[in-house]
Amino acid sequence: MIIVEDDTLLKDSLSLFFRSKGCEVSAFENAENALEAMETERFGVVIADQWLPGMDGVSLLNRAWEMESDAIRILITGIPNPGILDEANRSGVDDFILKPFTPDEIEASLWRLIRRRNTKAADAP
Questions:
Q1: 10 Å Cβ neighbour count for 25?
Q2: What is the pLDDT of residues 9-66, one digit of tens each?
Q3: Residue 41: exposure state from Cβ atoms within 10 A (0-12, 13-18, ≥19)
């Protein structure tokens, strides 16, 4: 799992939460460092804030899809801009979560997305 969030407290909190659940987590404060890590490590989940220094979250999630098309991609944002949410939907982002949120909300989203993918895989011929 890769978490990209420029708010250090939130990034560290999410990292600790998912590590306590047994997940392997790499956390970054900007998209550029996350992309560099994505070139060498496999990742199944990318959680990214929309408002990052440099590259924005939707652009990062699009690049993540290019690198690993089966990764689950979740966008988090504190500003529910309809244009950004539309762009996220058009580019196939799996879910978006509005701040403030609890780690349990992201965990519930992940489980829902994993179940949906498993159901689609089971239904495929």
A1: 18
A2: 999 999 999 999 999 999 999 999 999 999 999 899 999 999 999 999 999 999 999 9
A3: exposed
CATH number at residue 117: 3.40.50.2300
Q: If you write DSSP's letter for every residue of 57-85 in order, what string do you get? A: HHHHHHHHHHH-TTSEEEEEESS--HHHH
Number of folded domains that form the chain: 1
Helix H or strand E encompassing 113: helix 103-123
pLDDT tens-digit series, residues 61-87: 999 999 999 999 999 999 888 888 888
Q: In the numeric block, which tokens belong to residue 101?
A: 């949120």
**How far apart, in whole angstroms, are the C-alpha atoms of residue 104 and residue 14?**
10
E strand or H helix at 95, and its extent? strand 95-98
Please tell me the pTM assigned to this model.
0.92
* Residues of the domain holding 13: 2-123
* Cα 66 from Cα 61, distance rounded (Å): 9
Pairing of strands 95-98, 72-77: parallel
CA angle 79, 84, 90 (to 5 degrees): 145
